[in-house]
Design brief:
single chain; 10 helices; 2 domains; 0% strand; mainly alpha
Length: 240
């Protein structure tokens, strides 16, 4: 029996979702959340096991972790930080292990969920959501093409590169982050860093488009004026 068949037969993804949903929302006493997210990260490397299930698993993770109370003295800080680190590692693993043809869809879904959560009325939920946006944005900015850190195998659509990634929610996300820099003191630095990372990503993407003979102004999802603003105003602050 192959590992993929084993995972499907015993519904590992579904059982992880149930475990996360059963965790109390008002306390963090065990490492179960981080163990569950580590398991999701590992399962993402098993071909097709999580396809079609990522959204429900991510919703369960975000709900279980973001709904925890703000960091207070009676919360184990090490346990909390390890839980958040496990979430960041899980998000990166889902992205890295995704088939090239699904990277855009996955990024769109993740950013859309995090965008919604970053508008929460609860300050600690906003901060956690923006922190995850900043982390994923950094991954995009630091890797000229995702193929540089994907496994050697590729699917029928070939390796993914900047110019292949289309994220319809990106314009809305950038606008939200720009406003957040002036609205929410607790998330100001994270929002600023996320904007800078995404500006680097967009500059690289449009540079790639120019190299293959495409007009940068044909970017599908971002007004050219906003792109020019980001590259002329935000990018210089990345390189003091």
């Amino acid at each position: 029996m192959g590992l993929d068949v084993f995972c499907q037969r015993y519904e590992l993804a579904e059982n992880i979702e149930v475990l996360l949903e059963e965790e109390p929302r008002d306390q963090l006493r065990t490492a179960l959340r981080q163990i569950a997210m580590r398991a999701i990260a590992e399962l993402s490397a098993v071909e097709r096991v999580l396809e079609g299930k990522e959204t429900r698993l991510l919703q369960a993770c975000f709900s279980s972790v973001f709904s925890l109370p703000p960091e207070v003295e009676d919360m184990d800080r090490y346990l909390y930080l390890e839980t958040m680190r496990s979430m960041d590692n899980m998000l990166q693993a889902l992205l890295l292990n995704s088939r090239a043809s699904r990277v855009s869809e996955l990024l769109q879904n993740i950013f859309q969920m995090l965008l919604t959560l970053s508008s929460s009325e609860r300050e600690h939920v906003r901060q956690r959501a923006v922190g995850r946006i900043e982390g994923l944005s950094f991954v995009l900015a630091e890797n000229p093409t995702l193929e540089a850190w994907c496994r050697s195998r590729t699917d029928i659509h070939g390796p993914v590169s900047y110019r292949d990634i289309q994220i319809p929610v990106l314009g809305q996300l950038l606008g939200h982050l720009l406003l957040s820099q002036h609205s929410w003191e607790e998330a100001r630095t994270l929002a600023r860093d996320a904007v800078q990372h995404l500006a680097v990503f967009l500059a690289g993407q449009n540079s790639k488009r120019s190299c293959v003979g495409l007009d940068p102004s044909t970017h599908r999802h971002l007004p050219m004026g906003l792109l020019l603003f980001l590259t002329s105003f935000v990018l210089p602050s990345c390189f003091p």
